[in-house]
Amino acid sequence: MSDYDESDGLIRCEYAWVEGNRLDPAILPPLAYNPKGGMQSRVISTGEPLLINDVAEQVKDSGTYYDVERDGTMRKVPDTGPPGTRAAIMLPVKHEGRVVGVVQLMSDSEPYTLEHLELAEALVTLTAQ
């Protein structure tokens, strides 16, 4: 889960769970909000969830994308090759109508469906209240 601070324009990792392993969020660098790019930034800009089943295509251009392994090893994508992630669901976390964060779900093997999106959206909505 990422936290978005409108005052400084940064997106920061607040919680990371990778393949059953909780990681220290401090290992992930803050990202600059970019209303014209980036999947998290799009979710923050629109306030709408995002379902992507072609992550490699989404991150093929330069940008700030990281592939994170369960041990915390990170590599910058696409500089070091394509991502291991195949599919992503990104959901806005809202407080009083404003987007204050993004929950990300990633799959290395299977695509996500609209049913996955709806279930995840329901869970995020419950936790954000």
Provide structural commentary:
The protein is of the alpha+beta class and 129 residues long. It has a single domain (2-127), classed as GAF domain (Beta-Lactamase, 2-Layer Sandwich). The protein has helices at residues 39-46, 55-58, 114-127; strands at residues 2-5, 10-13, 16-18, 21-23, 31-32, 50-52, 65-68, 74-77, 87-95, 98-107. The strands form three sheets. The chain has a six-stranded antiparallel β-sheet, with helices on both faces. The radius of gyration is 14 Å and the shape is globular.
Compact overview of the structure:
The protein is of the alpha+beta class.
Secondary structure topology:
Layout: E1 2-5, E2 10-13, E3 16-18, E4 21-23, E5 31-32, H1 39-46, E6 50-52, H2 55-58, E7 65-68, E8 74-77, E9 87-95, E10 98-107, H3 114-127
Antiparallel strand pairs: 1-2, 1-10, 2-5, 3-4, 6-9, 7-8, 9-10
Which descriptors apply to this entry?
single chain; 129 residues; alpha+beta; Beta-Lactamase; six-stranded antiparallel β-sheet; two-stranded antiparallel sheet; 3 helices; 10 strands; 20% helix
Mean pLDDT across every amino acid position? 91
Q: Helix count?
A: 3
Q: Which spans of ≥5 residues are poorly predicted at pLDDT below 50? A: none
Total domains, how many? 1
SSE pattern, N- to C-terminal: EEEEEHEHEEEEH
Give the neighbour order of strands across the main sheet: 5-2-1-10-9-6
> Main beta sheet: strand number and arrangement?
6 strands, antiparallel
Q: How many angstroms does the end-to-end distance come to?
A: 16 Å
- What is the highest CATH level, the class? Alpha Beta
Q: What global shape is seen? A: globular
Number of strands: 10
The CATH superfamily name is GAF domain
